[in-house]
Amino acid sequence: MQASTLTALKELALHCARSAGELSLARMKQPFTVEYKTSASDLVTAVDKEVEKHVVETILRHFPDHGILGEESTFAGDPRQFDTLWVIDPIDGTTNFVHQQINFSVSIAVYHKGEGLVGVVYDPSRDEMFYATKGEGAYLNDQPLRLERQVKLEEALLCTSVFWNKRAEQIGIDLIVKKLAGKVRGMRLLGSAALEMAYVAAGRLDGYVSLSLNAWDFGAGRIIVEEAGGRVTTMTGSPLPFDRKSSVMACNPAFYEELQHYLNLTENDMADNGAT
Ligand code: IPD
Ligand code: CA
Ligand code: CA
């Protein structure tokens, strides 16, 4: 891909993320409808849908032949039929958007034939833009991000997400939190996977682990962490997919192996507990 095309994709992703974030903030100040998707723990608002529609229309105006994989699916089609695919979460952290009115983000990634080219995570409440372009490093508001500090596992602050599987168990508690108790400095749950991965790239958190995320939750964060020098795989150590659900482990490379050792998860553990 030509350097000028890559720059154009990055500029458009940044523009879309900023305008999407500004739209979310403006709409948050007025009443909006909230619906349950699958349960009372799985929300979608009218703002999620409006913001995704706005982003998709903007992208397709510039690149009508590109594909879109978005959480609110305003664009249909098999993601693999497109060479260039935009992976979008208009509001990552909808529950935070509704309750806390902070700690949510816009996540936009561009993949070409399965390779991550551009990742952007924008936190409109704090006006923080995290982004990366393949081979060109990661940035926070134009400041380069580089994970150079050698962090020991006992010094690491990690983030995770727990979720309710079909049997209504918080499987992250048993398979992640209990195993890491006493091994790491602390665990946090911020409620926006994209933002948590961006914070790993920025060194505010040292690692993020989740048993199951959708492609739009980790699509951008993964590129930003990798470009900052972090390591990102599934929780069992395989490469992450770009177009489907997966477990995710993103961390400072200094303790990656040790963390895998303590989590000690097999594909069977994952399947038995409804993780991906
Ligand atoms: C959710 C957030 C949350 C994670 C969930 C996601 P949403 O995304 O990223 O941190 O734990 O698994 O579904 O629904 O707010 O876009
Ligand atoms: Ca999400
Ligand atoms: Ca979302």
Describe the structure concisely.
The chain has 276 residues and is of the alpha+beta class. 34% of the residues lie in helices and 26% in strands.
Structural class: alpha+beta
CATH fold description of the largest domain: Fructose-1,6-Bisphosphatase, Chain A, domain 1
Task: List bound small molecules.
Answer: D-MYO-inositol-1-phosphate, calcium ion
Outline: globular
The whole-angstrom Rg is 18 Å
Total number of β-strand segments?
Answer: 14
The CATH class label of the largest domain is Alpha Beta
What's the quaternary structure here? single chain
Point out poorly predicted stretches: none
- In terms of DSSP E residues, the strand content is 25-35%
Strand order within the widest sheet? 3-4-5-6-7-8-9
* Main sheet attributes: strand count, strand direction, barrel closure: 7 strands, mixed
Keywords: Hydrolase, Magnesium, Metal-binding
EC number: 3.1.3.25
Organism: Brevibacillus thermoruber
Cofactor: Mg(2+)
Structure notes:
With 276 residues, the chain is α+β, with helices and mostly antiparallel strands. The protein folds into two domains: 3-145, Fructose-1,6-Bisphosphatase, subunit A, domain 1 (Fructose-1,6-Bisphosphatase, Chain A, domain 1); 153-272, D-Maltodextrin-Binding Protein, domain 2. Helix content is 34%, strand content 26%. The chain has eight helices and 14 strands. It has helices spanning 3-28, 46-62, 94-99, 171-180, 193-201, 215-227, 256-263, 267-272, and strands at residues 34-36, 43-45, 67-70, 84-92, 105-112, 115-123, 128-133, 138-140, 143-145, 157-160, 186-188, 207-213, 231-233, 246-251. Strands 3-4-5-6-7-8-9 form a seven-stranded mixed sheet, with helices on both faces. Helix 1 runs antiparallel to helix 2 and helix 5 runs parallel beside helix 6 (215-227). The chain is globular and about 50 Å long. 44% of the residues are buried. The mean pLDDT is 94. It binds D-MYO-inositol-1-phosphate (IPD) and calcium ion (2 copies). D-MYO-inositol-1-phosphate (IPD) binds next to strand 4 and helix 3.
